[in-house]
Amino acid sequence: MEIVNPALHEYLIAHASPGADEVLRELAEETHRSLPPGLAGMQITHDEGALLSLLVKLAGARTAVEVGTFTGYSALCIARALPADGRLIACDVSEEWTSVARRYWERAGVADRIELVIAPAAETLRALPREEFVDFAFIDADKTGYPEYYEELVTRLRPGGVLALDNVLRSGRVVEPAAQDPGTVVMRQVNDAIAGDRRVESVMLSVRDGVTLVRKL
Ligand SMILES: C[S@@+](CC[C@H](N)C(=O)[O-])C[C@H]1O[C@@H](n2cnc3c(N)ncnc32)[C@H](O)[C@@H]1O
Asked: What ipTM goes with this model?
């Protein structure tokens, strides 16, 4: 999934702060021990988690939304960067995977900041107030859902708010014309749409599998 070479990726991870965090490390270990590699590999890596925490703090975020929670690693990185009275709405469809997440959120002392909604994310997002109240959002779920998740979230992002999208390079497949799987085709459309979206300024980063950062104007 990573697009930088493995040695360099290890080096990046070793230099992201906070260095050793017991709760995050054990969450990653349990996820990789209990699930097959194809599923466990959906978890973001430590460097991306550190990036999310930093962005939440830089944006001064109090209200955040995550689409795609899995076993809770990214949600934990977002929630612990919020102030104590901050709120993260976490969207997923899996009771099984998010039951792991809940245990680690409790351990980290951030469970009271996270509202987990088990339902298709499009339904959850559509039901949110139609106001610019979101300070930070992270999209990391089914790729064909990205156009709707982006639109529902960008309209609710406050001016100056930040939205991050994961897997935007699809392991490099976005630049391979022969790659025509639905996720890659949709991701090319999303990437083009964001680059031309006059409501935002944006940049694509080659972090892990590619992360686009969007700031609402
Ligand atoms: C790549 S994983 C998320 C990884 C997570 N951000 C982390 O840090 O470990 C994608 C997640 O999206 C969820 N998902 C897939 N389709 C969804 C949908 N329509 N609505 C909400 N969640 C969905 C899956 O259940 C899965 O947990």
From this structure: 0.99
138 neighbors 185 (Cβ within 8 angstroms): no
Burial class of 111 by CB neighbour count within 10 A (0 to 12, 13 to 18, 19+): middle
Domain ranges (residues) in the chain: 6-216
DSSP string, 30-43: HHHHHS-HHHHTTS
Q: What is the pLDDT of residue 16?
A: 83
In this prediction, residue 20 carries a pLDDT of 54
Q: What spacing in Å lies between the alpha carbon of 2 and ligand 1's midpoint?
A: 18
Which residue in 25, 166, 35, 165 sits closest to 99, CA to CA?
Answer: 35
Which ligand 1 atom sits nearest the alpha carbon of residue 94? Answer: 25
Ligand 1 pocket test: pick from 31, 52, 70, 98 the residue with the most ligand atoms within 8 Å of its Cβ: 70
Q: Which of 205, 189, 91, 83 lies closest to 137 in space, CA to CA?
A: 91
Q: Which residue reads 């708010």 in tokens?
A: 161
Specify the fold of 6-216. Answer: Rossmann fold (3.40.50)
Q: Which residues on adjacent β-strands are paired with residue 75?
A: none
Task: Tell whether pTM > 0.80.
Answer: yes
